Amino acid sequence: xxxxxxxxxxxxxxxxxxxxxxxxxxxxxxxxxxxxxxxxxxxxxxxxxxxxxxxxxxxxxxxxxxxxxxxxxxxxxxxxxxxxxxxxxxxxxxxxxxxxxxxxxxxxxxxxxx
Length: 114
Prior knowledge:
By secondary structure, the protein is mostly beta strands. Helices cover about 0% and strands about 50% of the residues. The chain contains no helices and eight strands.
């Protein structure tokens, strides 16, 4: 194992997915605070950068690489009385201006893993 630089923001119970030469880490909690933060580790440079926040703060969610530049973030547990989320968000890492609401899952789901 090798130590790398620290995550720019906390992502306890968040989700991570490899997309090409990058690791994208989304959401999670810090103490009792949910986060929508998105951080990317670039394997080539060994550095972290930040992407726009998710539209929905969440933890215990799933993430999936659609191809070499698009990712989905889905489901999870959300703050504010909504125990789980049906929301699915998508980002194109070639045009990372913001997340788009991609679709809604037919069932509430959390504690997801692929």
